[in-house]
Design a protein that fits this description.
This protein is mainly β. It has one domain: Rieske [2Fe-2S] iron-sulphur domain (Rieske Iron-sulfur Protein, 3-layer Sandwich). Strand 3 and strand 4 form a beta hairpin. The two termini are 21 Å apart. The mean pLDDT is 95. Pfam families: Rieske. This is Non-heme iron oxygenase ferredoxin subunit. Keywords: 2Fe-2S, Iron, Iron-sulfur, Metal-binding. InterPro entries: Rieske_2Fe-2S (IPR017941), Rieske_2Fe-2S_sf (IPR036922).
Length: 108
């Protein structure tokens, strides 16, 4: 499979997460304060809730329900109660399109 359009770059708000679904996979897409776009699995590994409803702080996305923060770079939780990472996906920008292949995890 190849990367598919997840959303438009212009739809993203800086320092906010947007939930998208690509080929049935829920993904949080984040435009950080440096202008970089990140894509991580949208489901918190602790509470099975949507991470895109959480809070972006620098290069982390914090779960709104229990406070676990996940690195947008590695997917690793930075604090408890979560202890399992979420997947991180490769993002390609083509014009205004944000492209993600949900079958290709970013190598950390």
């Amino acid at each position: 499979m190849t990367a598919q359009r997840a959303c438009a770059l212009s739809e993203l708000e800086q320092d906010a997460a947007k939930r998208v679904e690509v080929d049935g996979v829920a993904i949080s897409v984040v435009l950080d304060s440096n202008g970089d776009v990140h894509a991580i699995g949208d489901t918190c590994t602790h509470g099975d809730v949507s991470l895109s409803e959480g809070f972006v702080d620098g290069d982390t996305l914090e779960c709104w329900a229990h406070g676990s923060a996940f690195s947008l770079i590695t997917g690793k939780p930075l604090n408890l109660p979560a202890f399992e990472p979420v997947p991180v996906f490769v993002v390609t920008i083509d014009g205004d399109d944000v492209l993600i292949d949900p079958n290709v995890k970013k190598e950390i």
